[in-house]
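Changelog note: in this version the structure field was regenerated for every chain. One regenerated record is shown below for reference.
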Amino acid sequence: MQKKKWAIATGAIVVGALAIGAATWRYARYGGQINALGVDLRQPAAYVATPSLTALSRDLVKAPVLRELLTEDFVFYYEAHEDKLGLAGAIKRVAYEHETTFTDDLMALALDQPAEVALWADDRGAARHWALAMTRGALAKAIQGLGSIAAKDKQLTLVAEVPLTAFGLQSVPVYALSLSPRRTLAIASRGNRVVVLSDPGLLFDNERSPDPEASKVLAKLLSGDDGDQGLWRQHFGLAAPGTRHTLVAGGPLLALGYHRFMPALQALRVEVAPGGAGLRSWVKQGAAWPASPWAALPAQPAACTALPVDWAVARTVLAGGSGDASSALGEMVQSFDGPAAVCWYGKSQLHTPLLMAHAKGPAPSAATQEAFMQWWLPKGATWQAGDKAAGIKAPYGTQKQADASAYRAAFRRAGDWWLFSPDEALVAKAEEAIARRYPSIADTVGGASPVAVAAPAQIAELMKRETLAVLPREQGGMRQAAETQLLPRLADFGKLPAAQAVPQGQPDAQGWVALDWRPLSATTAVP
């Protein structure tokens, strides 16, 4: 039964890896505030609450489904991570050279207790910035005694005193601990509370002046009030941490920069029981999702997810410019309403998904469609109209014609649906499904209304082919590593059954609704 919940693995692995192994630059490399890049310490992109950071990777390896995909190498990687080893070495050196109250087991004490980790995306969209908050009496006391050391230590320095008097607290010293040329941590403590940031730039600007809004967050995290300490949990609408590992990815992170168009998708949450005894998952909805798109999509996708697009927002954004392109966008976007989806298929490629959206009213003119596609296409690509499909000649992509830099895409309306893919075969198959001449995903979900479906066998096939395609035999070392390490894991992954994620009941007061992972039925013949 537990195998049916295989798809939770993706969210757990991604968010768990982000929580444990984020890597950033040194403080000196920032040319100004990180907040200038859009980081708001009050609103994390992802969040982890764990009863033990040390146990997190070990429990992921033991969890259902994950234990079939991960090996002990996953645990060993984080046990021997350079940041962890650097921190342990720094603690031992400081203890030896300055005869402090630090002990060799201080780090083990810090990592084997409950903690909260928040993560933020950098300007490239990867969640590389992080902050750790915890209640550690012994560790906090040791940190509060660093003042005399920082004045004469090359690796440990006092950045500044951050004034918190406006928040009812005294100023707190913030120390920078350099672990390597690529990593400098910022550390602060008050009472029995400790906060560690992945870089001093999360709190200070280029002139080492505390950022006012970041200082407010630091004050709350160091506060003795449980409500203030829980500002990250409140952001995601979560209760106080329990005995399970809780991993959350916010909607903006999941939407890859397109969250404004999909505000209904607010977050995805996964919980891992102690010892890896079980997995549970939830999705947080900001509004009711539109009707299911599954009847319009060809059966047997590798992975497919509904996109809760807010077309009112899309109309405002896409039709707000000027010129011919804006006019075409304005006319095209009026056609869209209701559900949308994106799907990948095992016999296609990773960069050629099928995109679809529901339509209403008469189709825009051919000229409008052409202007829309010229806006959609990358620079250097040209539009070539066809009887059944519109073609794109672009300076990239796989060789599907005599011209190695060209491939055929299709953009069409079929009934009440707009269809687009760089692989015209997927659009043709979708047309067949809409006309009921080919099985659709709706034929396999048993009357349910899932938010996503996935087939491990198809995903494994797709990932294997794409991996080997970018690792030619000339790259012997990398290809051998992929063949010996990755491909066996993909083979195990491919043995898991196809599944669908079905919301259970109504969302709670915070918008969270539990997901039930059910098997997909076999594709039936369609008249």
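Spot check on this record: The mean pLDDT is 76. The CA atoms of residues 307 and 341 lie 5 Å apart.
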